Amino acid sequence: DAGVIQSPRHEVTEMGQEVTLRCKPISGHNSLFWYRQTMMRGLELLIYFNNNVPIDDSGMPEDRFSAKMPNASFSTLKIQPSEPRDSAVYFCASSPGLVADTQYFGPGTRLTVL
Amino acid sequence: KQEVTQIPAALSVPEGENLVLNCSFTDSAIYNLQWFRQDPGKGLTSLLLIQSSQREQTSGRLNASLDKSSGRSTLYIAASQPGDSATYLCAVRQISGYSGGGADGLTFGKGTHLIIQP
Description:
The complex is a heterodimer of chains A (114) and B (118). Chain A has no helices and eleven strands. Chain A has 114 residues and is mainly β. Chain B is mainly β and 118 residues long. Chain B has no helices and eleven strands. In chain B, strands 2, 4, 5, 9, 10 and 11 form a six-stranded mixed sheet that branches. Chain B is globular, with a radius of gyration of 14 Å. Chain B starts with a strand and ends with a strand. Chains A and B meet through β5 and β10 of A and β4, β5, β9 and β10 of B.
């Protein structure tokens, strides 16, 4: 299996622009998670889905952030409009779906908002 | 709200030493605890997963223990090697508060940055 796939790997944009991050989970995994990593706050859970349904989005920082999972093999995290403080590494992870399961992380998208 | 703390924040030791990384968490209502390794500019690699009913897990030179009642876990690395240099992250999976049951996403500590000197 190719593992969790994220694109793009790097994104540089200007403040105010819309940013869309993409994730393809491991085939057969039922749970998908979006995390953000910054030097100040470490790794934080933003939102997670189970069977394509958002379960907990309490970690989404503001209404500027939205996430979708239209099918079992694809998810997006959108920031509109982007701000410099959104600069971070965004990770997507998936797991088979059982509570005891390991989460498998993608390589991350490094976002820089100028 | 669950809080995960890792001590020390950074550690530098000579090659060959045995070492212990510490992790503590405030809420013992967890499903499991996981140790990850992160190399610079890379994603996370899972090292060990301990279920809440278990006391320890071993993989090669790594041994992780869990004391759920006291909210502590340790990662023991035997005979350290320069290739072990990385940031080690501890994360707990909380028992979900939503009615469907199951578990929430992971709550991470800020990590221990480990350097093994050749």
